[in-house]
Amino acid sequence: MLSGNGEGMDNLLVSGADSAPLRVLLAHGAGAGMDSPFMEAMALGLAENGWQVLRFEFPYMQRQRSSGKKRPPDKAEVLLTSFREQVEALVQDKPLVIGGKSMGGRMASLLADALLDEQAIQACICLGYPFHPLGKPDRLRTEHLAGLRTPTLIVQGERDAMGRHDEVSHYPLSEQLQLAWMPDGDHSFKPRKSSGHSESTNWALAVRAMDQFLTKLLSSTERTQQA
Question: What does DSSP assign to residue 126?
Fold first, then answer.
């Protein structure tokens, strides 16, 4: 169905071989598209570990590319519809995990349980989840996360301004949700120089966390199918 590394196909960037045992469909964040350095690092890192990653863009980002003018994100209903359309367009011949960066990950988490019930996906990955808007810690975006039934991994910077470690530790979150903390990382996992960590090592750590999550998920899926 899909092949190649980093090839564009109908609003998709595909990284990793078509023979991969599992696919990951990733959406971008609010301010940067599917080819941002962050998205590229996550996708290629997973591909190097044997997974196939498909990146797509929401309608507003496609319009921004064609017009050259910066545009605000579409309303949530449009984003969710666009995400679902991408899932439905894929041939369901192997396990599928959905996710994304920031806003994209949030949209994935909002769709996850419905798609799980439809047997369209197996899990969700959020990279830098926006637990609350910037500077508004009282406006939580966690209600659906408390009862989430889909196995979900959130990779989060320890000092993310939209959900720091000390804040998130107090949120009521589903037992299906795992958290992987990036040392001193911000919303894109970049640490301060004084921390002794680096952006590249944190990005590699994020890829490792996702790889471990996917490996365990695939093993569990295979055992279920054999039972």
Answer: E
